Amino acid sequence: MTLRIAPLQPEDRAAWENLARGYKAFYNTPTADEAYDSAWNRLLNQDGIHGLGAYQDDELRGLAHYLFHANTWAPSVCYLQDLYTDPSVRGQGIGRALIEAVAAQARERGAARYYWLTQADNARARALYDQLAHHGGFVRYDYPL
């Protein structure tokens, strides 16, 4: 198996959408078709968000979407918003490789911090995250707008 992490390319659209739909289904967040179009265009144009793909033998098998933002204490922090690997290839190091590739981008940009969220019951992902990062114990709340 050859694994390559690289920015998403225009020819990845169909494979990316398949993975993105899998991600949204996993988290039970229905998303309109036009939102996929908008997200894809923003990713390709790096319009506030960035995307990396994990290519296993040149087939897109995982994705990472991330962004940089300021916070009160630092001009730049990196947020890994979405991370998803094709279920058929989980456990092969793809998630780890994507997390580390985003970390490299965060270092290159001088980000003071790199963080992400997941559901408390996402045991498989948390097993990986616990190897790579510190869980600070925070609980997230979403206020409806």
From TrEMBL:
Regions that span the bilayer: none
Alphabetical keyword list: Acyltransferase, Transferase
S-adenosyl-L-methionine among keywords: no
Gene3D superfamilies found in the cross-reference section: 3.40.630.30
Residue ranges constituting the N-acetyltransferase domain according to the UniProt record: 3-145
Protein name in UniProt: GNAT family N-acetyltransferase
Keyword Repressor: no
Annotated GO MF terms: acyltransferase activity, transferring groups other than amino-acyl groups
Superkingdom assignment: Bacteria
Organism: Hylemonella gracilis
Pfam families in the cross-refs: Acetyltransf_1
